[in-house]
Amino acid sequence: MSAILESADIDRALKRISHEIIEKNQGLESVVLMGIPTRGAYLANRISLILEELGAKVPVGTLDITMHRDDLRLRPPRPLLPTLMPPGGIEGKHVVLVDDVLFSGRTIRAALDALGELGRPRTVQLAVLVDRGHRELPIRADYVGKNLPTSSKESVRVQLSEIDEIDSVEIVGA
Amino acid sequence: MKSQLLSINDLSTADIHSILSTAAELERITDGPTKKLPTLRGRTVVNLFFEDSTRTRISFETAAKRLSADVINFSAKGSSVSKGESLKDTAQTLQAMGADAVVIRHGSSGAAQRLADSGWISATVINAGDGTHEHPTQALLDAFTISKSFPDRKSDFSGLRVAIVGDILHSRVARSNVLLLSKLGASVTLIAPPTLLPVGVETWPVKISYNMDEQLEEFDVVMMLRIQIERMSNFFFPSEREYSRQYGLNEERLLRMKKSAIVMHPGPMNRGLEISASSADSSRSVIVDQVGNGVLTRMAVLYLLLGGAALTEVGQ
Questions:
Q1: How confident is the model at residue B313 (pLDDT cuts 50, 70, 90)?
Q2: Residue B312: pLDDT above 50?
Q3: Rounded mean pLDDT of B69-78?
Q4: Closest CA to A167 of A55, A82, A56, A43
Q5: Residues B254, B285: Cα–Cα separation, whole Å
Q6: Given CB atoms, is A22 within the 8 Å cutoff of chain B?
Q7: Which of A9, B40, B247, B261 could form a disulfide with A5 if both were Cys (CB 3.0 to 4.6 A apart)?
Q8: Which residues of B touch A80 (CB under 8 A)?
Q9: CATH number of the domain at B8-131+292-306, please?
């Protein structure tokens, strides 16, 4: 199974996303990153480090969506993952949600609900490393690292060095 | 995790860690402007209380409502139970109403087990106190409170010294706490007059002391138990004053405790009997925190028992 994105590609994609965040928001005033655990949280951290190199420190938080999932009854209960409010909160901020893979859009729908419990951001934007298509809800990403056409039978595996030893994105199964 | 919570013995150490960490996460996500989560929408939780209770019932009710479950409160007073309806018939009525979980408080030890094993209902049974047997969610909320008071430990209590003082004989809280705290590695000492210790206590994983002043300086947690006047059919101690002098937590004893030590009480308190008003209200007392933590812990239990597919529902 060959990797579609390797470490350098992931870096480049995140750098481009970081520049686009600055461009779209005309700076980083009031911008807050919220990563969706597990891997979205690591990606949000990486983007914040890049943004810091580019000149501004952006508050980072994490947002667990488990309690808002629409498929809770289809599987055994899952453990909750950490939700951490970014310093300064999210009220009136431009919140950029960060996740690894955008697929059905259901995670993001749940994330929007979960975010609503925490406060009322000025805007909510979405950054994903991979958009693999097959949306089941009217949701789109503002920042995409890589558009990856897939069959719905395949799955996309994202590995990040923070927990998986290596950085890679690959398509598994068929 | 099993699909019922009847005794601490039903829980593995991993289950306990999962409940405590879920409670901690719930605290963070319910800290915002809205305290309510949609997770158990459409599920029905019945509070089946055959014994009086304020905080446990309200706590379960609040927990279920915060998770958007529908709550039906059933207390034996003012119901058909006072006309002589049996537990079986009551249970079958609840079953017919489509209860997903039954939280039961009963004066007889083993009532929760009976309800769960009987096949009368398919709902998840949660023991909210059965006679002098167990009160598992109280022990869980106590462990959660301790883990918050000693944040460095996470939920590993090895080497932590806990004293449980008072009416061990009638206390389901003590039984559940002994089981739970020793599973998490704490060293538990029971302090009580010999008349208030149950038969067979020497087989429990605890140390026993008849003297409260002996090692008071060594404990990290001092948990005072209520003298259960309503269960005192015999003379267990000569007078309330004497009990209070020997086993009550007062100002002077409070000052002798470790600086980092905390005071707990499952409530309701008999102020002036097992605990003096000033000790109960002191800065070391986490008694009020226990109540708030109770809601979070019960939310965690309800979520982990009802939040996903029931084991029978998980298709392959």
A1: very low
A2: no
A3: 86
A4: A43
A5: 10
A6: no
A7: A9
A8: 21-22, 25-26, 29
A9: 3.40.50.1370
Is the CB of residue A55 less than 8 Å away from at least one CB of chain B? no
Common-topology check for domains B8-131+292-306 and B136-285: yes
* Mean pLDDT value across chain B: 91
**How many A-B residue pairs are in contact by the CB < 8 A criterion?**
64
**Class of domain A3-72+80-172 (CATH, top level):** alpha beta
DSSP helix/strand/coil, A98: strand
User: Within an 8 Å CB–CB cutoff, is residue A117 touching chain B?
Assistant: yes
pLDDT in tens, B132-168: 999 999 999 999 999 999 999 877 999 999 999 999 9
Query: What are the boundaries of each domain within chain A?
Result: 3-72+80-172
CA-closest candidate to residue A99, choices A54, A139, A152: A139
Q: Does pLDDT of B315 surpass 60?
A: no
Catalytic position from the list B22, B44, B56, B297: B56
Tokens of B94: 């609840």
In chain B, domain spans? 8-131+292-306, 136-285
ipTM of the complex: 0.80
For A75, which of B32, B38, B308 is closest by C-beta distance? B308
Q: Do A64 and B18 touch (CB under 8 A)?
A: no
CATH fourth-level superfamily of B136-285: Aspartate/ornithine carbamoyltransferase (3.40.50.1370)
